[in-house]
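4.2 Preliminary Data

To establish feasibility before requesting continued support, the project team ran the inverse folding procedure on a target of 130 residues. The structure was first converted into the token representation described in Section 3, and no sequence information of any kind was made available to the design step. The complete token record follows.
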């Protein structure tokens, strides 16, 4: 009888762990917003963005709301993002929410222009969660 109780307790514990893991995976599956930077090896405008914007990006509200993810376009189009159209030029910055394109910036000219174009994109996400 005691062995049966221990076995039942172990089974219950295993089920509980499975349920918690399944819940965690479900919550993790709901992807948050991200800014995907499509880049290419040797891209001079990508390097310029890296020098002028990248160091500050993570420190901004936009960087917190939509963390940067880099994707080398030499790998083809990503399979985990639904894009409105293929990305052909680098750098291209695609704001993605829940795996779908919200908006994009094609190219990089200078710091001020990037931030000016990014702010309305971030606004499309709606209010930031508390």
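Position-by-position output of the design step:
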């Amino acid at each position: 009888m005691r062995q049966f109780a221990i076995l039942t307790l172990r089974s219950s514990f295993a089920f509980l762990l499975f349920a918690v893991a399944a819940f965690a995976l479900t919550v993790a599956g709901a992807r948050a917003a991200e800014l995907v930077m499509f880049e290419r090896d040797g891209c001079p405008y990508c390097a310029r963005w890296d020098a002028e914007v990248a160091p500050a990006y993570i420190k901004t509200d936009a960087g917190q709301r939509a963390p940067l993810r880099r994707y080398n376009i030499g790998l083809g189009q990503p399979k985990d993002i639904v894009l409105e159209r293929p990305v052909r030029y680098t750098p291209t910055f695609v704001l993605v929410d829940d795996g779908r394109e919200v908006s994009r910036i094609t190219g990089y000219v200078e710091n001020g222009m990037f931030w000016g174009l990014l702010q309305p994109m971030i606004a499309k996400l709606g209010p930031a969660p508390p």
